[in-house]
Write a structure and sequence with these properties.
- The structure is a homodimer of 216-residue chains.
- With 216 residues, chain A is mainly α.
- Chain A has one domain: Ferritin.
- Helices cover 82% and strands 0% of the residues of chain A.
- Chain A contains ten helices and no strands.
- In chain A, helix 9 crosses helix 10.
- The model of chain A has no long low-confidence stretch (mean pLDDT 89).
């Protein structure tokens, strides 16, 4: 592996490792908004799965000779700011964030991972595999919308805010990390390839919004 | 199993299941006080282990024909109040609470579990097995005391407050749950047996305080 690719691998594993750590935090916090003990335990179990992924990623970073803390550090400000600015005010906002926000992020990370050599590509795909919150969030949000149609409008606005915040934060991160940007440009081949990548992510996002019963 | 024993089993599994759910919450919250990302991940992993135990206990409750939510509900006010009144103000207080408080609680639950038939006795012993926080907390607290002796006095006071709060809350719970009280009285045999049980718990507590380098 050349130096650029190696730096990009460490960057991608680093951002993912920090993302999993914050996902743990956030799910643990949102669990307290649950209307029932069963819902609270369900979110806590998802948080537990995220911290398991975090451990896999930091172990791989150490194996690559990288210091996990140093690999995560550059991404902490952007991810912390994202969560600070998109703190759910209630249980449903938390679930929409888990489904729409994490879905968007996972698609983005997966696209970049496709440019990585094995075994890192497989590791990223494995830690991004759904931990059960997609189905759980879908079920709860659809039930809430069925019970009160007004909920849909508010949650659609919330989802749009999440996406806007996610796009601006990730653009800033990629602009700041030369090797990561280079990996994406080399991987997509040209601007046409990049446009296709963005199109795939956008299409998947629209499908998730429709599945929730929300207009994007 | 007679009806008294069965109610007591459901009570013990119920209080433990809720205790594990709050342990998850508390460890997840205290993780954010960690001075490093590695410490934060370590506490998050312990939280993940607790929620795994919670799942084992609720599965067993369901198997016994009990509704897990209903089994946990009577114990929520006492456990919530305990945590509300013993919220750590910093990383070290959180670790002392995990080590001293959870150690004391685990000893108490284990003594009661000894009166249960199999497989519930084995299940309780299994979920109470240390998830690694004892060693981790010991190491961190001893290092902090070595660096600054004044820390020891403050943490000893804190530990005393934890114990006082734990004793008064658990007395109230046992007084409120007839079958649980009866199980303990029948299990210990007489007041002499009960005194021995309390003595064992107190001795183990003093050993933990000494291991931390604190006077009890």
């Amino acid at each position: 592996m050349n130096a650029v690719a190696n730096t990009a691998v460490v960057d991608l594993l680093g951002v993912l490792a920090y993302a999993e750590l914050t996902a743990f935090d956030r799910l643990a916090e949102d669990a307290r908004l649950a209307p029932s003990l069963a819902g609270r335990a369900a979110l806590a179990r998802m948080a537990a799965a995220e911290i398991g992924h975090h451990g896999r990623l930091t172990a791989r970073l150490a194996e690559l000779g990288a210091d996990p803390e140093a690999a995560m550090a550059p991404f902490a400000p952007a991810l912390d700011a994202f969560h600070e600015n998109t703190r759910p005010r209630n249980w449903l906002e938390g679930l929409v964030k888990a489904y729409v926000g994490d879905g968007l992020a996972a698609d983005f990370y997966r696209e970049i991972a496709a440019f990585l050599p094995h075994p890192d590509r497989a590791l990223v795909e494995e830690v991004l595999a759904d931990t059960g919150h997609a189905d759980f969030a879908l079920r709860e949000v659809r039930a809430a919308i069925a019970a009160d149609r007004k909920v849909a409008g508010r949650l659609a606005l919330w989802a749009r805010r999440l996406v806007g915040e996610a796009i601006s934060r990730s653009q800033a991160v990629v602009a700041d990390r030369d090797e990561l940007g280079q990996l994406i440009m080399e991987g997509t081949g040209d601007l046409g390839g990049l446009a296709l990548l963005i199109d795939r992510i956008t299409t998947a996002h629209s499908a998730r919004m429709r599945a929730l019963g929300l207009r994007d």
